[in-house]
# Entry
Amino acid sequence: MSSQTVSDAAIPRDNTPAQAPAPHNAELPRPRLRQRDLLKIYAWYRVVIALVLLGLFASGISRGAVGTLHPALYLNTAITYAVLNIAWLLYLYPSHFKASPLRKGSILSCDILVFLLLIQASGGLNSGVGYLMLTTCAVGSLLLDRRMGAFLAAIASIAVIIQQLFGLLTGEATTQDIVSAGSLGILLFTCVTALQYLSAHIRIANQKAEQERRQAAHLQRLTQQIVAQMQTGVLVLDGQGNAELINRSAQQLLGVNRIVGGQLSPTLNESLEALRRQSGSHSGIIQGAGHSELRASVTSLSNDRTSENRRSTLVFLEDNRKLSQQAQQLKLASLGRLTGSIAHEIRNPLGAISHAAQLLAESDSIGNEDRQLTEIISRHSQRVNQIVENVMQLSRRQPPAPQLLDLRRWTEEFLRDYTASVSPDTIIKYTVPSTPVPARFDPSQMSQVVTNLCNNAIRHSSLATGVPEVELSVTHIADRDCARLEIIDMGNGVAEEHADQIFEPFFTTESSGAGLGLYIARELCESTRANIYYCRSQDKRSCFRVEFSHADQVF
# Structure
């Protein structure tokens, strides 16, 4: 079963707002399609009835009933009527029976005139031809508006009565024919009035149905837009575990290669099935795309316990980094203010110690050994001052201001500025694609992150090979439709026992350094939904990757 993706394919790219439902008091137009169908049926009916009238006369089946008074008039009228009806059918067929009210009125008036001639040729209303006007007036009440439908019935009734009065004067009709003409006129008006009444009620019902349809379509569009723009991933599975619906956030979190053609990958299916079988809370951590962790909440969409294997399942997916970040922010909010205050208080005595060490080093009365001690004091004072600066930076960090940028262009501009700040012998390589790579991030914060990663890469490359070198690579991840930035060095890399600790605050394997660089980098990346982690590149070199969220995702 193919899955339904609620994404940009279901929502217009031009962000055109969904059409609002029509007001309940608004008068909707008549459905044109139904009038065309009625006109099509009536056009075929006219051809058939013309051929029947002509066949009855030509075969002699109804001898003495039709065409008794003026056979030539009847025959000529029937032949002309059949030819005209076939011509009208061929004329209306190419336009799919689309006709103006004037043409509709002309067709109906032609029918009234033909039936009057056939009545005259048949010797009056006893032939039964006059009752064919009932169909004509009935169709006219549906094809024309209320006034024109009543006007058509009035013309037909008056014409029949005048015809019978003329026949009474010429001796071709009797008083009984006058009564029959009046009865036919009353029947015509009754038929037209009843059909117009029913048509009005049907039209009102159609208007209400159309309003409800528009309202349902409007709500459906709103629901699709809401689900598509949700930052929480939404996944609906049928009873066989196939994806019926998946929104864009779920695609980003899981990766396209884990759901192909509505089929879940075995690992993802096993993880969700394990959560579904849990007796308590049906939620837990599953593996997402790009080494990320997702919190999945599984809920059944049916209360029918007898069809356990056929129930649909609703799965909500959230980035566990965001949840952890929110919890950590709540826990460290007060601690951050406290450490900021402590760091501010440390700076004053630290500055006094550093200044005293500098004055002592300038004195001529101390020896070389004491001068080395003052250098140690100055060096460690600078280290403590750097720690204080990092802590204060964490406590007063500004909210991110993400922008939609081309990561390829931004990387080139960053390297132009960064190259001017490093030594001339530093080797900087970078690889970018030929097409734009859109990404949404804060350029100033990302500059701080990449600067820190590049400085680390140059330092570790220089320690391992003696050559300060760093390589940057920009790529586009097709299965997640997002951007990736890699910072690669030539060093020995991070030991496996330290891989899970390098992003913790104050963790460092060097004798110098505060151990806050990677921690700050992770915090800055996660503030814009980017994921930073350590790995090995394709050629097994040490690599830090920054994977951005989808460019259209707003946060």
